[in-house]
Structure formats: structure tokens, C-alpha cells
Amino acid sequence: MFKLLKTAGPLLLSLLLIVPLAACGKEEVQTVRVAEVTRSIFYAPQYVALAKGFFKEEGLKVDLKTTWGGDKTMTALLSNGADVALVGSETSIYVYARGSSDPVINFAQLTQTDGTFLVSREKIDNFTWDQLKGKTFLGQRKGGMPQMAGEFVLKKHGIDPKSDLKLIQNVDFANVPSAFASGTGDFVQLFEPTASIFEKEGKGYIVASFGAESGHVPYTTFMAKQSFMKKNKEAVDKFTRAIYKAQKWVDSHSAKETAETIKPFFKDTDPKLIETVISRYKEQGSFATDPILDEKEWKNLQNIMGEAGELPKEVSHDILVNTEIAKKAIK
User: Fold this and answer.
1) Is 24 contained in some domain?
2) Where in or outside the cell (predicted)?
3) pLDDT tens-digit profile of 92-121?
């Protein structure tokens, strides 16, 4: 018996040493539940972060679900159905204005321009904005960032959305393309890839970009409730670092490489079309190259909301935006 213990002793000692070391070396993986407002090529850096394993590198598992609409996305966040929301920054202002005791904080910007395009039913070789006067314009949902940016651009070009054209904005977000395809409106405001698909199929023609016209704005950001951010500071830091890695990757790689990377998230979309859309967004600087939401962009957001009559109250940048996390991520 003693001889057996003497022989097995070194082996047992080795196992006793290895097991604690292995346990110490294994970092716990935290799951972060993300609700995205829609599934869109516009959010390419997010899908790159997932496909390239940037979240995994940070010790995070991201559970992504599409909630289809700003209201539904914020409901998921506020009811603890999600930890992080990817949605327009205006929603955080709406929540704050209602007197929330647990405000929603913007901590990482993903897109920095509007992502919609003006599509005409008829082909126009030399488009000018005054050609919308007297026409029927099928816009986006009232109070949403696409519609507010759309009205801002119209006013910028001397067009009163209420009197110079027939403005339709009571069609649900998901049904706008089908409404236009069925004959509603002379012009429509569409996201990609629908705008390019319509052009390819001869259903409409892209004549202008609302993103190029409205300037830099925190169009889509990652946000979370203040309580979640306080309890999960490290996870939010890791999440932001992963997003920044993806932003740098998209910025330094071609539209084709990015399209190939995010293709699994758009299985029913022609890869060539994905490339075209990414190229268009890159050309107009829609993808933020870092996650910092600066004060100038925040002011532009509130200017656009104010012009549309949708700003419930002005909120200073430091109340609903945390830039320290993003600044830390890029160091």
C-alpha cells in the first residue's frame, strides 16, 4: 500500500497543482443581451464584431435579437428583456423626458449619419429638391429619427413638409417599402438594401441621400440603463472595445471584404448587393470610425428633433451620454 502511494504520489501532486491553475486561468464568459432596432447592413460593424469574434476575445457572449422598431426596442430594454439596445439616440431623450428614475445612457456610437435615401418612382437625370413640391412623399414614422432627418433636409432646401407636398407618415416602418411598391407616393424615404433592390428591379430610382445632407448625428448608438452600466461596468467596457475593433476593421477593409464577413447575417441578400450598400455607406461616412458620441453631434441631433417639433425638452450631453467608456476603449 505504501509502495503504491509512493509511486502515485508525484502524479497526484501534479494533478492537484494543475487543476487549480486551470481553474484560475479560465475566465468567466458573460452574456450580454442586445436588442437591435432592425436587421440592417447599416449596422455592418456590429456584425463584423460578431463574425470576427471580437466580443469573444473580450470574454463576452452576445445574444442578439431584432426587435423591429424603436418603441419595441426601448420596451425590451426598459422591461429588462435586453441589457443593451442598438437604436436611435432620440429614444433616450424621450425616455428621460418622461421622468425616468433610471435613465438610458448612450455609451457607444455605431453610425454617424442618417441611413436613408430618397427614391423616386420615375427616373430623374438631373434631380433638384424643389422637384418634390406638389408631390406625394411617403416618409417614415412620425417621431423617429429617419422622419425627423427627412424633414430637416427638406426644410434645408426650402421645402415645407406640411404645405409644399403631401406628406404620408402613418405607415408602419416595415410596410413602407410595400406601400410604395403598390403605388403609394411619388417619392419615398428608404433604407438600404431596399433602395438598391428597388432600383435594380425598376421599382424606383435613388436620387439623393438624406445622410449626406443632414450631417453628422448620433443616428444609431448602443445604450443601456444607468443601473445596468453601474452593475456591469467591466462588461460595458469590454463590449465597447469589441465594437471599436470592428469599427477599425471596417474602416481599413474594402466593401467587398466587409460584405463577405457579414454575409451570414443576410443570407437572403445578394452578396454583390451587400457590397454595393456598404460601399455607398462608406463613401458618405455613415459608419462611425470610433464609438465616441461628441457634443457637436448631440446638438445636431436636438436641432433636427427641434425642427421636426419632436424635442420634448433639451437635454445636455453629459446627462445622457457617457464618453469616458468610449475614450478608454480607443486608448
Assistant:
1) no
2) Periplasm
3) 999 999 999 999 999 999 999 999 999 999
